[in-house]
Write a structure and sequence with these properties.
Blueprint: E1 5-10, E2 17-23, H1 25-34, E3 51-57, E4 62-65, E5 85-88, H2 98-104
Length: about 110
Amino acid sequence: MSAVWTSHLRCFTCGKEFILNRVSLEEIHNAELFFPCPYCQATPSLQRPHHLNYLYLANVPYRKARAGDCWHFSEYCSGWPLENFLELDYPPEGEICNECKALVGNEPPG
């Protein structure tokens, strides 16, 4: 599984800050150069990119089907809910999927 990042950017024109969650490094680079500012709609360029303040490794969320009985943390699990689910960005209280543990390792992240 490739790394997922959270990036904190500052607009090259208005100076306001915004966050992009769960993106790849390539998407962050493209956002610096092509993503319009969500505040002033200014579009950056090679000559005037947005400023990357910082980035950090993001957690893959925990998901549980609304009618399910366990939480999943691997998107490669056969039980990974794609619709009608609850999602948390931190380790939940409750049962964790054994297939997820086997796919990713013995212990869930967090």
